[in-house]
């Protein structure tokens, strides 16, 4: 009799325990009771104006629009500085995924760091949305099913600008290339586009990242007699190259083609120096009511307009949260499947699609920088030259070198 | 005609732009080695003062309409005053302790200055255009040399030579050198040694500010510009011999030229060649090429 009673007590106690545990888990399927989004970026170096604090602000805007909660669980935002070092970035990502319950990493300017973080995400089966790194390797040789390349890549910016410049008569090219993963990708992708459009490449020179002086490299470009000098670099490097070219008068005899130029670069260099340049971007704040809505929201926080990468951070966070909401879980595999099924629409993207190789395909734009007299109000910098459908701007799947794509 | 596959004209033009960079190295390392030689302080804030010189030039122009020439005069004075304050307020407490403390203090100071300005202005850089008097370029036959760069070479050579003259060939310089050699003895002659030390630090910082003004029209003025250059300048000072004034001038110019040549033959190494040379010099002549035996 006593034994029976004991069994009853023990089993009912077990039921009670289970009941409590089940009750706690039931209301949401969010792991650890929080959805944690991490912005990994360059907070203080040469790319901190392209991403940096602005990317954190953009992610916050998306979270605020969502009301700070998804599936009843709070959304938390964390950020860190990767100092443009691949090992620092990868270690931070590993720490976040392993011990800080981070569900999603976004932004990550600097291709070397992005490639390292992408490998960590794949290993940990967590989602990584790249908004700010350019190398097309992320969706080719180094693709994986946990990395989504969201905003731009070197194929798109280099290709769109390259084709446009060749069409306007610039058929011989010399490259000034940043000597790391991104610069090499940008030069290779642009070279393909230039050759396909009937142009030729006569030479190139590689400079270290964050080069203090560009006059030597520009003189070599000048000596090549190429009609076009392609700048396969970004941020502070592009800015200093353009400024030095103006000083040496090189921009009067040869065309400068910035292959990845952001609106913050134009703002820093000013219109008199940059007018007439072609720029390929995936977002410009002053295109329609939607782009203006986000642009103004961001401006209210940061006192400057967002780069396409910062707008992309906003969009990728928003789309991620929507997918979490729709699937009722923050499980990475489920959310990724949902994201790849969805047609993406928000203030940044219209009709965007995420392909199997991780490439988010969306409309791209070719702009020309306005002359000072055409610019009517602050940040009125671009004139739209053409809209390029996503399928033309981005590398077609048939050319993909990504192992996930079965041919 | 070519040298190792590079046309002579191309090589000459690279040497000229290398010389311009060398001038900045010379001016900055000059200030550093004066400060180290006289105060025994490793002034890690030197790059930040250089950057501050450029930012003040921009600030003075956009806020108060102060032109380039006035900046060239005023900014070094403002920075020298700031240097005097730093020396009086902070550094002089550290003369009796290990030089490492001075290094840490100035390094921290540099981080604070850069952090504050980065917070305010971001890193893309502030635009400052070349003064009208220097628009255009000289045709040297093998290249077009922008007038402004020619002016930089001229100005920095004048500054370097004057400073060298001041320290090595005038009574004031003699006092200074004596004060560092044996402060107690010099004090016994009735010379105000602490004041001399303040002046020395102020002049060193003022030189960094002057280099900043000269650099303002050449690059985008960014809070990072000091960090980018200071490491190279330290290497220059080490190669030249930590406290040798002539050494820092000659080494600065020479390394600018060597960097220029490297950019033609193997551009990827242009950032490292200076450190490669530094390593060799440290192995063969640890005190530096121009060091004087004490």
Describe it for me?
The complex is a heterodimer of chains A (407) and B (294). Chain A has 15 helices and 16 strands. Chain A has helices at 2-25, 52-65, 86-99, 111-124, 154-167, 181-196, 215-223, 235-247, 250-253, 263-269, 271-274, 289-302, 308-327, 332-341, 390-393; strands spanning 35-41, 69-70, 73-81, 104-107, 127-130, 147-149, 172-178, 200-207, 228-232, 255-258, 278-281, 344-345, 350-354, 360-361, 364-369, 382-388. In chain A, strand 2 and strand 3 form a beta hairpin. In chain A, the strands form 4 sheets. A 6-stranded mixed beta sheet of chain A has the order 2-3-1-4-5-6, sandwiched between helices. In chain A, strands 8-7-9-10 form a 4-stranded parallel beta sheet, sandwiched between helices. A 3-stranded antiparallel beta sheet of chain A has the order 11-15-16. By secondary structure, chain A is an alpha/beta fold. Chain A starts with a helix and ends in a 14-residue tail after the last helix. Chain A is 44% helix and 19% strand. The radius of gyration of chain A is 24 Å and the shape is globular. The relative contact order of chain A is 0.13. Chain B has 11 helices and 4 strands, in the order ββααααββααααααα. Chain B is mainly α. In chain B, 71% of the residues lie in helices and 3% in strands. The model of chain B has no long low-confidence stretch (mean pLDDT 89). In chain B, the strands form 2 sheets. Chain B has a two-stranded antiparallel sheet with strand order 1-2. Chain B has a two-stranded antiparallel sheet with strand order 3-4. In chain B, helix 1 (8-39) packs parallel to helix 5, helix 2 (46-64) packs across helix 8 (193-215) and helix 9 crosses helix 10 (245-265). Chain B has helices at residues 8-39, 46-64, 68-89, 99-121, 147-169, 171-181, 183-188, 193-215, 225-240, 245-265, 273-284; strands at residues 2-3, 6-7, 137-139, 144-146. Chain B starts with a strand and ends in a 10-residue tail after the last helix. The chains are: A alpha/beta (407), B mainly alpha (294). The interface between A and B is large, with 36 and 39 residues.
